[in-house]
Structure to design on (469 residues):
């Protein structure tokens, strides 16, 4: 639907012998029919208005809205252009034309219509919002954010601008960037590791985000620092951050994926150090393995130092009704609901620190990836875990461990109490809850295909594991 602010007054010049009052009555009835969805009747009445006043802006505009409603966008364009000719300073008409042209794929003329509306009235929030939506659809994130914020400066309660600003910011920068940047323990450990190895060495930072690791390397005395970021609008903002901190002349920011970089074009030479924080909660889900492999093959020296030098997936067996309720259902309101468990999610990210649960085993390693190695193969393994306490086990709580350097380790193992957690935790459910006694062993299958991993129970072979109770 059109979202401009078209005015619907009579506006057109009457033909000789016609009665303006009659036109107004026909127009009012037509618009009433349009509002009720009686489009055919509305169109008939509007044609009668145009027979008396062929360039009547409001009648032309309402016909354009009917064309839009019925999916005939091409017919709406000449109607709106005729309406604009009769009322050239009507901001809503220019907005409507811009919306139709954008939906027809005519990006250049759509932008022209919105900009003409801004020339007429620079303080119209709807126009800035429409232009922001146009920028958003065309990938100009910074420009879209600027227009939405301008609309909200004019009208802080403009709902469409506020909703689209939120949507655009989420597209531009995932929300997890902020807890990551505010994770003081993680930052301190990365900084300590980088201070040890960066001085006098060339450093490549992959996935720079706001540029934090690159600035750590430059501050530590790196010979040169090159930092890449796949999203161009994030790279542009990182340049602002780096310049704000007085390091603009010491860090080269490149708005490309690392796999698009080339020695001699983007980097002066192979780097001696790689620093990165591109890990997701499940370690390898952010294309980590192909990215690290490409870096070793094309961008790093053979003896390059990698921070972190290794990344691990770790976990423990978990139980307790608070968490089990996220995966399984038994009875509710007196009804048996267990067949619905077939739809249970095998994996879920949850704020484990804030959810009471039972730790039923010691911590165990699921997979460890040595990031100094040049190649990684898909793998699977069987893990045997002993219950250290009795309980009803529903799955595995999993977290991330990074070996940043010699005796420098970051690990976000769940712990009670408030905390800012960079990577969060995952829950991996079993096929069914399993009742375990102390000392009983559970056999788990862990597998990864270089991008995704799973861990699940081999309950049928579990030594001595009893049926659910």
């Amino acid at each position: 639907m059109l979202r401009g602010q078209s005015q619907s007054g009579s506006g057109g010049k009457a033909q000789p012998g016609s009665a303006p009052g009659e036109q107004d009555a026909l127009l009012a009835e037509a618009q009433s029919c349009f509002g009720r969805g009686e489009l055919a009747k509305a169109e008939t009445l509007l044609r009668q208005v145009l027979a008396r006043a062929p360039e009547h802006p409001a009648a032309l505009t309402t016909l354009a809205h009917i064309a839009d409603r019925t999916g005939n966008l091409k017919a709406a364009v000449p109607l709106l252009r005729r309406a604009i000719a009769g009322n050239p300073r009507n901001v809503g008409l220019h907005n409507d034309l811009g919306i139709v042209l954008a939906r027809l794929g005519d990006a250049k003329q759509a932008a022209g219509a919105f900009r003409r509306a801004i020339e007429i009235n620079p303080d119209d929030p709807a126009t800035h919002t429409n232009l922001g939506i146009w920028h958003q659809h065309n990938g100009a994130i910074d420009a879209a954010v600027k227009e939405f914020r301008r609309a909200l400066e004019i009208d802080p309660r403009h709902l469409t601008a506020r909703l689209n600003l939120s949507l655009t910011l989420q597209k531009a920068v995932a929300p997890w960037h902020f807890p990551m940047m505010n994770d003081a323990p993680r930052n301190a450990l990365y900084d300590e590791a980088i201070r040890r190895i960066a001085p006098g060495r060339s450093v490549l930072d992959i996935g720079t985000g706001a540029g934090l690791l690159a600035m750590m390397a430059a501050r530590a005395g790196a010979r040169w620092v090159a930092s890449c970021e796949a999203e161009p609008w994030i790279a542009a903002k990182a340049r602002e951050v780096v310049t704000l901190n007085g390091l603009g002349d010491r860090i080269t920011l490149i708005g490309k994926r690392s796999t698009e970089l080339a020695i001699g074009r983007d980097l002066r030479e192979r780097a001696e150090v790689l620093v990165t924080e591109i890990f997701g909660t499940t370690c390898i889900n952010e294309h980590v393995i192909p990215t690290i492999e490409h870096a070793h093959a094309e961008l790093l020296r053979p003896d390059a130092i990698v921070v972190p030098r290794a990344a691990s997936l770790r976990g423990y067996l978990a139980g307790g009704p608070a968490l089990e309720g996220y995966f399984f259902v038994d009875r509710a309101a007196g009804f048996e609901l267990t067949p619905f468990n077939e739809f249970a999610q095998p994996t879920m990210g949850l704020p484990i620190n804030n959810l009471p649960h039972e730790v039923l085993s010691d911590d165990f390693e699921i997979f460890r990836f040595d990031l100094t190695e040049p190649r990684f193969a898909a793998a699977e393994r069987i893990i045997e875990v002993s219950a250290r306490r009795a309980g009803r086990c529903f799955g595995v709580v999993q977290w991330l461990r990074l070996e940043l350097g010699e005796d420098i380790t970051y690990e976000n193992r769940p712990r009670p109490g408030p905390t800012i957690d960079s990577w969060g935790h995952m829950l991996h459910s079993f096929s069914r809850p399993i009742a375990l006694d102390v000392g009983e062993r559970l056999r788990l299958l862990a597998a990864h295909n270089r991008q995704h991993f799973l861990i699940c129970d081999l309950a049928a072979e579990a030594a001595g594991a009893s049926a659910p109770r």
Observations:
- Residues 208 and 229 are 5 Å apart (CA to CA).
- The chain has three domains: 20-172, 196-306, 310-461.
